[in-house]
Amino acid sequence: MAASAERQVRISRVAGRYLVFDIDDVLYIRRHHGICAVLTGTMPQNPTQNLFLSLPVELQAEEAQLLVDKGAGYIADELNDHLLRLSTMNDSTRSAYLQHIKQQRRNAQRVFEEEKAKVQARHQNKRKANRPASPSSAATTTEPAPATVTEDGDSLFDTPKPTPPPPSLTSTLKEKELPLPGVTPTTSYPILPAITSPASPASIASTNATTPSFYPLYKYLNSRGYYTTPGLRFGGDYSVYPGDPFRYHAHYLANSYGWDEEVAMLDLVTSGRLGTAVKKSFLFGAEKPGGPQQSGGGDGAGGVRVFCIEWAGM
Amino acid sequence: MSLDNDDDNPSLAPPSITTSSGSPSHPHPHLPTNAAAAAAVAAADDLTPEDLIEDEGAASQDFRAFAASLSLSQQKQQQQYRKTPGVSAQTIRKGEKDFESHGTRAQADALEQSRGAMREVLGYTRVHPAPAAREGASAARACNNNRGWYFPAWWEGYREGGEVGVGGGNVDGGGFGVGEEGKEGKERRPFGFVRERVVVLEGSSVASQALGRAVTGQAKERPARGKDWLLPEEALYLVERGSLDLWWPLKALGEIFPLDRTAAAVTEGGEEAGEYDLGFPLSLQAAYALLIGNDGERGKISLQKFQVYSNLKRCGYNVLRAPPTRKQPTPASSRPATTTLWQWFGSLLSTAPNHPPYGPLVQPGLYRNYASIYRQLALLPRHKPSPSPSSSTPTEPFTIHYHIWKSAQKWTKLRHPPPDFYLAVVDAQQSSVPTLSEIAPLLGATPPAPGRPEWTGPGRLYARLKHGYRNVLVAVVDHGVINYMRFAGGGGGPMLHKLLSIEEAGRPDAGAGYCDERRNLGDG
After folding, report:
1. CATH tag, A1-89+195-210
2. Which of A209, A245, B92, B438 is most solvent-facing, going by the fewest CB within 10 Å?
3. Which residues, numbered 261 to 280 in chain A, qualify as contacts with chain B under a Cβ-Cβ cut-off of 8 Å?
4. 3-state DSSP call for residue B40?
5. Contact assignment for A245 to B280 by CB distance below 8 Å
6. Which of A212, A252, A248, A215 has the alpha carbon at shortest distance from A235?
7. Is the CB of B125 less than 8 angstroms away from the CB of A184?
């Protein structure tokens, strides 16, 4: 945990939205900060379904805010960073990036080769089994197998290079013989700086401006170990889960109100009924004005009070 | 979906996907009475309402099942690059969940497995097949059908010809070199959004059959003539699904697409011309950074709109940007004289008698049928839907952003029938239920869509009501979660209908009284 506490999650701000692209970051905030957010991308392995989606993960503004407040993440203006880095790229970053890509391409190539070899081997085994071994067929079948093995050996030899050396003449020549598959990496990691300097208060300040009014309630729920997802599915501000939504059903459907805000009785009845109909109870809460400063006990509750309503159905 | 030639199971084709990303509503924005959608309905019938209620979509995915279906015999290392063909929707099922934590190790293990599986599945790197190596072509010049180049400023100064679209023949027929001034006798092409196009495709792949557009009528000396240019959402969608290798150019467009083929061979002479001399591949992150922008930015698309676009594309719909609204010449007179049902209703009821200021509504007298009594009971004049739309233009965000077609064999990007659906995209947090002055122009921007002829009669009143006289879909996006609603103008007055939600889909026909009441609410 100590090591992971130092991890800084890069939150990409793109056109006012907050995205996370690194799978390790996604898992990290899911494990350690109770943020699961929403996967929004098309799953490249299976792109014609909407059930399982892929990176990037879209964070709500309050989730991004929470990570920044906890010092676990920083917000990067993705467009500016990319334009700046892409247009004024020095040779070393560029070669590092290209080397990174080339490495991935080689890995992919190796996987494909292995697979091909396996399929071939299976094919030949089948043929062998079907036909009693005749000397000529045996000769042809044994021949390709060592060839693939040597290729594997080559690429295996290539990969353990710890630091990518400048592309040598021989390696480029070799690649020309064997066209490598192209790859699209998920993150542009080597291009971008690992961590922006802590002196980026401007970006943090601008998150403050966009933080919705229900940040206190969100923070309260998060501090109690609840996971939240956007509430659109059930008609509230959040759906609230007692743990990782991988394992648990949502318990609550949460709405945030202002402390002195008049809440229409009909709204309570509506939401209470709605929550009960989807087997959730309706939770609503608000922060006492000047909350965390005045009553901020050690429980992390700040001045937030929450209530639950269930439809009695009498 | 015509895009899919290699990696998808036909059983995943549009109708069989029954849950959109987590919305309890149905991704199919049409009524189940549609005969063409019979398959979809059959699939939907497998789901009990209970399933739909408990469907928490993205949040409840069990990646273990998915990972298992993807990697029947693969090792971890392979999974990063390899996709397995033939994963059917049936094998992608959600796992069991618990009510709450009971602190057992079994539970913790299950959770850890889910996370591990998610790590594996999402750790995939998009791989593009190696370009076909040709004799005498260097790696950089090898024809790479999957490659696209990001040229945001190329069409910046372009002016779309006319309001209807540029004149010109088909994609390849534009060898005039004159410019795009309207040539009479040419077929009208759909509006091109040429200024918005930022990614040029290197070759023609399967993707370019449904996406992208070649800009015709360009001078011969312009490089990359006849190449397909993609809109930002198309490019990003293709990158996401692993069908496009997006590159950042280091050279000008003219150098990447040399005018004559021999030039390629000459530059190739420089032996060490690495494959990254012209540019280099961009990551998914970079693609998002470059292609997602605020509303109204040229060459970008807002994240919400992109999410809706890709959601619909994943379902198999054909989606195009709606052309900019233009004043329609009011074709009131050209309308055929056939009276639709609604018009008939209207004519029946619009002859409102004059009521005296006091006294009973129904004048004493002898009545031989109910119709004349009802006519006297009608106090408020009923709105008569008119085929000519209101003159006001829709305001953001309640404007039509996408035209949607159900997937069909003969649909092409240049030639297609009128869209099946009209869609607006709104943000859940930044907008509220549209006011009458917002929804009326929105509905006015869609063509009149009288219901099916078989919906006549008292039993189908609810179907008619739901369909309305005009209707429009509104996609509500809440941080990646999308819900589709249908707003239908029944008899002209706008009414809100949540599309195919459980209550409405399962609700018995409430009868004429109820529906009339609803319609009257929308009047005036």
Report:
1. 3.40.1170
2. A209
3. 277-279
4. helix
5. no
6. A252
7. yes
Contacts of B451 (CB under 8 A, 6+ apart): B341, B463, B464, B467
User: Cβ distance B191 to B160 under 8 Å?
Assistant: yes
Fold of A212-314: Trna Endonuclease; Chain: A, domain 1 (3.40.1350)
Q: How many residues does chain A have?
A: 314
Strands (E), B10-138: 126-128
Closest among B114, B117, B144, B148 to B132, alpha carbons compared: B144
Task: Please tell me the distance in Å from B246's CA to the nearest CA on chain A.
Answer: 8
Contact A232 B124 (CB under 8 A): no
Q: How far apart (Å, rounded) are the C-alpha atoms in residues B219 and B351?
A: 62
Can you tell me whether residue B117 is helix, strand or coil? Answer: helix
Kindly state the average pLDDT of the residues B213-231: 73
Is B13–A48 a contact, with Cβ atoms under 8 angstroms apart?
A: yes
Query: Which residues contact residue B81 at a Cβ distance below 8 angstroms, ignoring those fewer than 6 apart?
Result: A107, A108, A111, A112, A183, B124, B125, B127
**Gap between the Cα atoms of B188 and B419, Å rounded:** 16
Beta-carbon separation of B12 and A48 below 8 A = yes
**Among B20-24, B236-240, B475-479, where is mean pLDDT lowest?**
B20-24
The answer, as to whether pTM is greater than 0.95, is: no
Residue holding tokens 């690194």?
Answer: A22
Residues of chain A contacting B87 with CB distance shorter than 8 Å: 45-46
A181 and B CB contact within 8 Å: yes
In angstroms, the first-to-last Cα distance of chain B is 44
pLDDT in tens, B279-309: 788 888 888 888 888 887 888 888 888 999 9
Any CB–CB contact under 8 A between A310 and chain B? Answer: no
Query: Which residues of A have a catalytic role annotated?
Result: 241, 249, 280
Q: Fold identical between A1-89+195-210 and A212-314?
A: no
3-state helix, strand, coil in chain B (%, to 5): 30, 15, 55
A133 touches chain B (CB under 8 A): no
> Of A102-106, A180-184, B477-481, where does mean pLDDT reach its minimum?
A180-184
The domain locations on chain A are 1-89+195-210, 90-177, 212-314
A19 inside 8 A of chain B by CB = yes
Residues paired with A41 in a beta bridge: A54
3-state helix, strand, coil in chain A (%, to 5): 45, 20, 35
A183 and chain B in contact, CB less than 8 A: yes
Substitution target from B17, B283, B481, B503 for chain A, most A beta carbons within 10 A: B283
**Separation of alpha carbons A58 and A81, rounded Å:** 19
Using a CB-CB distance cutoff of 8 angstroms, which residues of chain B are in contact with residue A98? 276, 280
Contacts of A86 in chain B (CB under 8 A): 248, 286
Residue ranges of domains in chain B: 10-122, 147-266+276-301, 385-522
